[in-house]
Amino acid sequence: MALDAKEREIRDRLHATRETMIARVSEMVSIPSGHGHREGLERLQSMIATRLRALGAEIEMVPAEARPAWIDPRPASDARVATLVARRLKGRTGPRMLLCGHVDTVHDPAGPFQRLEPRADGAMVGPGVVDMKGGVEVLLSALEALEASGAQVAWTVVIVTDEESGSFGSARTIEQVARAHDRAFVVEPAAGEGDLVVERPGSGQFMLEATGWAAHAGRDFAKGVSAVQALATAVVAAGALADVTCGRIVNIGPLEGGAATNIVPDRARAWGNLRYRDEAEGAKLGAALDALATGGDDAVPRVRVQRLHNRPAKPCTDAVRAMAERAQAVAADLGFRVGLASTGGVSDANLIQYAGPPTLDGLGVRGGNLHRLDEYFWPDSLPERAALLAILLAREAKVA
Ligand SMILES: [Zn+2]
Predict the structure, then answer these.
(1) What is the pTM assigned to this prediction?
(2) Are residues 162 and 102 in the same domain?
């Protein structure tokens, strides 16, 4: 199959706006949005809302929910910036497409890494540029080109402000919106040299909390019950649940316990992360972790287990594979090749696909060094990926 006239028009329009796209990415990158930086997150949401409103979308700002208090070892930012939902559905028939991205980054808003700078080899370095402000630009430019082409695709955009910290505030909104859609597209960074991400593991957070009796270590050692000892036993048992050969990961840390070396500690806690291949495996692993709880309500020592699986596994289903193959055909028509990847990372694609629609991820820009101070992207991937996404959406609208 070759590109038809409308598709060529979309591609040419996007290639002609390459410099504008780079300028917009540069502007987004210079607005700090890490660590729950409210001002930056709100500014980005409002810039994006303006562009989507110009395409005829109805904008809804859905308030974020609170993070569970036990999730964070140290008091974390609970900026709770609203999730943006922009719907362009009215009067449009055919399958409903959901596009999802996030504007938060992992970078310190007060740190030294603040701007987009060229690198000698043509790449550009900047905080959150590949994960995923470049991807957000791909999403917006793709929709602008799609609308300009006159295609009547029914679409909704969801822009999240807390993806990097687990999407606890936006998960319910993401799932609710996802349920009303037929297919979904997420603009997380491309894998490898431009591969699409078809499969991700499930992931959950947990906390082990041990309670003992405090006592003076010298005068009353025998009266004390060490929470640290109880926690240590539970930590070793939790670690033993990992089995990398079948994708079962149990990572433990940080941990804390005790106030001073001459006091028997009465409280100790450890936090951890679980990853697993599929939901059956996740349920088994969760049950095994729960079984590490010991003692009744008032027993000393006792160990409590809290856990929350915030990223259900995202398998490569037949529907996902079929969509991915159609995307590969679009790339081939555009003159490049994209592979299909499975990664160990998780994203909002996990939540979306669990709620219903088959989801294709990794549609964002090409680049690397995510979450590092030398994070970079390839500017040529802006028009390239935007054309891929826009033409894919136009074709998907015709697939029953
Ligand atoms: Zn991301």
Answers:
(1) 0.95
(2) yes
